[in-house]
């Protein structure tokens, strides 16, 4: 394990990323000398500069000076990066972002890492709200903006630490949390894992990293959950909505405005009654997981209740963007078939007339690997519009397209169409959305801009 010393110079390649910037800020708070590089200036880089962190714009070998003690990089940085190569040439130690997060986490006694194919940001935020309500002064690093702290990061000065644990590239195998949460295990990131069996093996390996005195909190609904928990030394507790779970939500009431009320039972005994200001059974499930994790680190039922009551969602997670001419606009980060189903199911519980869903597929590989699953994911939508695929890190090889996906969805009997670029979609919505409708923009790219343009135009 690396011990971060005051005065140690740590350089971040890609310091402006939401996760990298948070780690840079944590180390700066510990007294390290932090600097880094990003492609261009952003609100994040300006914030870091205001903290006294030096940032270069543009990747250049000369940015890696002789006084640098450690270089941190993300999975997006390849060995041909000039700064990466300069660090190697100078024999400066290199560390990827996931390992750094794991090293930092190891310094906190009561660490909670939230893993799963879906729901990580929401559940990490719920755990954060509970720990804040309990007055534990936690350090928080989350993959979205949590309104309570107006950031993705909070630096605390206590043994409590909560973070997302991403499975992509097996990043979460660098962590050794005191409490690990597994929300769900499904096919995704198949450009890396190749198949579901590989994904399940990685999640089991993540669970094995939890110490004997710690706990795994795992969704009872995961297929063959016993396979993921076999051979573990730690305490294992299940959660869910069905009978048999150690932590179970019962007596659920869905309010017309989308809010939820429910009871939580722990091993058959009433733990407490809870109110949740975000819609959907998936969020109730996330809340029960959060309660279980927080309880294991000593949080009482009253603080769990207070924290969840204060939770209003995170940025881009069923986030109400506004209303125009009686049309409510909601944005959601969902980019996997299961996430889309959950978002649409949540929308169904909110009173409205017609559900319009604008979906921007994220990456060609995911669209191709999960093509049929995407085709069946829009059951609860009335009108479906498909935007162009958001390429992210990939290039178009011509084997998949947004129009093909629209045609596949239409074969299920849904009204689905590929309209074109964002301006064309906005124009189409303005002509066809009526008062009382709900407009849901969905995807991990920049599809939120369509809803914002609809509200502003």
Automatic annotation (TrEMBL):
Domain Mur ligase N-terminal catalytic: 9-108
Molecular function via GO: ATP binding; UDP-N-acetylmuramate-L-alanine ligase activity
Broadest EC class assigned to this enzyme: ligase
Residues binding ATP, per UniProt: 116-122
Domain (Mur ligase central): residue spans on this chain: 114-294
Catalytic activity: UDP-N-acetyl-alpha-D-muramate + L-alanine + ATP = UDP-N-acetyl-alpha-D-muramoyl-L-alanine + ADP + phosphate + H(+)
InterPro entries membership: Mur-like_cat_sf, Mur_ligase_C, Mur_ligase_C_dom_sf, Mur_ligase_cen, Mur_ligase_N, MurCDEF_pg_biosynth, UDP-N-AcMur_Ala_ligase_MurC
UniProt domain Mur ligase C-terminal: residue ranges: 316-445
One Pfam family of this chain: Mur_ligase_M
EC number annotated for this UniProt entry: 6.3.2.8
UniProt superkingdom: Bacteria
Keywords, in A-Z order: ATP-binding, Cell cycle, Cell division, Cell shape, Cell wall biogenesis/degradation, Cytoplasm, Ligase, Nucleotide-binding, Peptidoglycan synthesis
Gene Ontology BP term (one): regulation of cell shape
Compartment list: Cytoplasm
GO CC annotation: cytoplasm
Pathway linked to the protein: Cell wall biogenesis; peptidoglycan biosynthesis
Role this protein plays: Cell wall formation.
Similarity-based family: Belongs to the MurCDEF family.
Protein name: UDP-N-acetylmuramate--L-alanine ligase
Source organism: Anaerotignum faecicola
């Amino acid at each position: 394990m690396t011990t971060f010393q005051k005065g140690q110079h740590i350089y971040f390649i890609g310091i402006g990323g939401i996760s990298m910037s948070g780690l840079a800020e944590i180390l700066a708070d510990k007294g390290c000398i932090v600097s880094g590089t990003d492609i261009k200036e952003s609100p994040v880089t300006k914030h870091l500069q205001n903290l006294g962190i030096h940032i270069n714009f543009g990747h250049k070998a000369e940015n890696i000076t002789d006084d640098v003690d450690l270089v941190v990089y993300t999975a997006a940085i390849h060995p041909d990066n000039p700064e990466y190569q300069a660090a190697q040439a100078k024999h400066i130690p290199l560390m990827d972002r996931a390992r750094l997060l794991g090293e930092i986490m190891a310094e906190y006694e009561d660490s909670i890492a939230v893993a799963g194919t879906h729901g990580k940001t929401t559940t990490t935020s719920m755990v954060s709200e509970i720990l804040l309500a309990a007055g534990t002064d936690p350090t928080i690093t989350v993959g979205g903006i949590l309104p309570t702290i107006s950031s993705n990061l909070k630096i605390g000065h206590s043994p409590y630490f909560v973070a997302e644990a991403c499975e992509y590239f097996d990043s979460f195998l660098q962590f050794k949390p005191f409490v690990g949460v597994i929300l769900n295990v499904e096919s995704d990131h198949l450009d890396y894992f190749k198949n579901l069996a590989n994904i399940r093996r990685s999640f089991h390996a993540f669970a094995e990293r939890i110490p004997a005195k710690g706990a795994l909190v795992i969704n009872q609904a995961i297929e063959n959950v016993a396979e993921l928990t076999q051979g573990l030394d730690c305490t294992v507790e299940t959660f869910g909505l069905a009978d048999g779970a150690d932590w179970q939500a019962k007596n659920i009431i869905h309010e017309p405005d989308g809010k939820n009320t429910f009871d939580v039972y722990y091993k058959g005994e009433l733990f407490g009654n809870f109110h949740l200001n975000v819609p959907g059974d998936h969020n109730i499930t996330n809340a029960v997981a959060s309660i279980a994790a927080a309880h294991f680190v000593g949080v009482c039922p009253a603080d769990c209740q207070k924290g969840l009551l204060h939770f209003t969602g995170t940025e881009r997670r069923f986030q109400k963007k506004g209303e125009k001419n009686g049309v409510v606009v909601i944005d959601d980060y969902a980019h996997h078939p299961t996430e889309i189903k959950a978002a649409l199911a949540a929308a169904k519980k909110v009173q409205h007339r017609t559900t319009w869903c604008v979906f921007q597929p994220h990456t060609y590989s995911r669209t191709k690997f999960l093509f049929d699953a995407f085709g069946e994911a829009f059951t609860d939508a009335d009108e479906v519009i498909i935007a162009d695929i958001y390429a992210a890190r990939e290039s178009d090889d011509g084997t998949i397209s947004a129009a093909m996906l629209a045609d596949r969805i239409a074969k299920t009997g849904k009204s689905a169409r590929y309209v074109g670029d964002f301006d064309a979609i906005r124009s189409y919505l303005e002509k066809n959305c009526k008062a009382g409708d709900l407009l849901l923009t969905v995807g991990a790219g920049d599809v939120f801009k369509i809803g914002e343009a609809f509200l502003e135009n």
